């Protein structure tokens, strides 16, 4: 497929995909307080959508500011400004975000928005930064940003930034967002959080070791999460993604996932029927447009 012209590219909506943590182990803690993790990231086909509008004055702004988030603190704004600072780029942009991913749900929405901003503006502004540098810049914004920049399911270690691409089964799943927001900092500060799990290998995960060390603490502090886990476990093994609040379960077929979704959807929770993806839709689109090989 031929590369699109610049006018077409600027008018496009770009996906910022959700992620699930299929496993999360805390295997230590650094001297600066950050926890050392082992986790598995996989994407699911729930997305925010971002459109970038060129401006002539070199400014970076949002078309619509998110309630409760100062514009300067928005991760898309910070990502665009990091690119300008890194490269000396004098161009500007107005960023339009269609927000579909729940905030505070553990699906990585803010990090994914930032990653899409880094990757797409690198193309639109013709900055030509290599992927490795975009991942380093993403880490400044958050530990989850590099996996979204890279765009492939990954086994992750360190604070979540040391990535090895893997290909877990792309199963159908049901994702539920309870009516609460989990404070990640509070969970990682909890005295009864397990911080010394034994490190495992990718083969151990494939063999079925996919527990999340945060699930007991989160369930204790957030009864809504515990209730949702219990309801979902009637259909398949219910798991927590990251520190939550979202919980999920995987299914062998679309129909079995659909049946669970139909039974669980109500006015109390946000319930999603989703498909696991090992390649981010952002990367797929860039490939289709001949922007990456």
Explain how this protein is built:
- The radius of gyration is 19 Å and the shape is globular.
- Helix 2 (75-87) runs parallel beside helix 3 (109-124), helix 3 (109-124) packs antiparallel against helix 4 and helix 8 packs across helix 9.
- Strands 1, 2, 3, 4, 5, 6, 7, 8, 9 and 10 form a ten-stranded mixed beta sheet that branches.
- It folds into two domains: 6-166, 2-Layer Sandwich (Ribosomal Protein S5, domain 2), CATH 3.30.230; 172-277, 2-Layer Sandwich (Alpha-Beta Plaits), CATH 3.30.70.
- A hairpin with a 5-residue loop joins strand 1 (13-29) and strand 2.
- It has helices at residues 6-10, 75-87, 109-124, 131-141, 145-150, 184-189, 202-206, 215-221, 223-232, 254-264, 281-288; strands spanning 13-29, 35-55, 60-62, 92-98, 154-157, 162-165, 172-177, 239-240, 247-251, 270-277.
- 40% of the residues are buried.
- It has 293 residues and is α+β, with helices and mostly antiparallel strands.
- The model has no long low-confidence stretch (mean pLDDT 94).
- Helix content is 33%, strand content 26%.
- The longest helix has 16 residues, at 109-124.
- It is built from eleven helices and ten strands.
Considering the chains and any ligands shown, give keywords for the structure.
alpha+beta, Ribosomal Protein S5, domain 2, Alpha-Beta Plaits, 10 strands, 293 residues, 2 domains, ten-stranded mixed beta sheet, globular
């Amino acid at each position: 497929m031929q590369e699109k012209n610049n006018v077409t590219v600027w008018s496009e909506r770009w996906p910022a995909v959700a992620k699930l943590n299929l496993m999360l182990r805390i295997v230590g803690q650094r001297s600066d307080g950050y926890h050392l993790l082992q986790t598995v990231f996989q994407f699911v086909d729930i997305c925010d959508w971002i459109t970038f509008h060129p401006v002539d004055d070199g400014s970076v702004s949002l078309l619509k500011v998110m309630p409760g988030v100062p514009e300067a603190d928005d991760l898309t704004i910070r990502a665009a400004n990091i690119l300008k600072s890194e490269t000396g780029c004098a161009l500007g942009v107005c960023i339009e975000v269609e927000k579909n991913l729940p905030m505070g749900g553990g699906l990585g929405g803010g990090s994914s928005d930032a990653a899409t901003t880094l990757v797409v503006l690198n193309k639109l502004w013709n900055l030509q930064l290599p992927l490795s540098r975009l991942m380093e810049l993403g880490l400044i914004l958050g530990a989850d940003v590099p996996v979204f920049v890279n765009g492939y399911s990954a086994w992750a270690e360190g604070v979540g930034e040391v990535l090895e691409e893997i290909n877990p089964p792309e199963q159908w799943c049901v994702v539920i967002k309870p009516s609460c927001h989990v404070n990640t900092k509070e969970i990682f500060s909890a005295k009864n959080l397990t911080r010394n799990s034994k490190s495992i290998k990718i083969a151990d995960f494939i063999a079925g070791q996919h527990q999340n060390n945060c699930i007991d603490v989160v369930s204790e502090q957030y009864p809504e999460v515990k209730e949702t886990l219990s309801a979902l476990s009637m259909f398949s093994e219910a798991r927590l993604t990251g520190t939550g609040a979202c919980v999920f379960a995987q299914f062998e077929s679309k129909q079995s996932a659909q049946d669970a979704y139909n039974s669980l959807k109500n006015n109390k929770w946000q319930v999603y029927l989703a498909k696991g993806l090992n390649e981010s839709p952002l990367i797929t689109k860039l490939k289709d447009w001949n922007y990456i090989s």
